Amino acid sequence: MTTTHALADTAVLTGRTLRHVTRSVDTIVTTAVTPIAMLLLFVYVLGGAIDTGSGSYVTYLLPGILLVTIASGVAYTAFRLFSDLESGMFERFQSMPIARSGALWAHVLTSLVANLISLVLVVAVAVLIGFRSGAGVLAWLAVLGILLVLTLALTWVAVIAGLTASSVEGASAFSYPLIFLPFVSSAFVPTASMPGPVRWFAENQPVTSIVDTIRALLAQQPVGTEIWVALGWCVGILVVAYVGAMAVYRRKTA
Q: Which of 3, 110, 164, 217, CA to CA, is 20 to 30 A from 199?
């Protein structure tokens, strides 16, 4: 089978899974509407009680909400993958003359596209309620690159969950820690306001370095070595999750 044939198969299967996303109201509400609702809740209800310095709270908050958006989005990758396995779709695909990896990559690419759309919607709403950034094109491209690598890394984690789950609830449950982690980081409040052990955890977990890097890029501030820490976390998770997911996938389809 040629590379062109494999790419064409993957494109067709990606179109299939993208149509599933657009037809699922539950998916749209969870991956796009919920992060926007959280953004509005924190800015207009809780933001007034949180001291983050001289800048607007929406500008401080946005990087953390973007990570919550990604964590919410990849949960549906695990759900859709598990549904395809349970319904026998993967077995049907394997019996057809199509690329064996096409069905898996279709879910991964769908996750990237769907999450990118959700991120754009969240940023658009943030701009409407006061988010402003003087960052240049390179800084925005750096932010986009970090978010895409993180999305890809968490998507492969979702693939492992979807392939190994024994129930629909189990397939989606892996995302709860991912959604919870930003709340114990610098995403919503400065870590300096946290008690000792919680502060130590917040300052040394991946979300804080990623959020701080994106925040510095958007604010045109020096990122220092923090960007390498953030990229190290993203690439490290990506490599480990990809290797693990492919090993599970080969065992499932052997």
A: 217
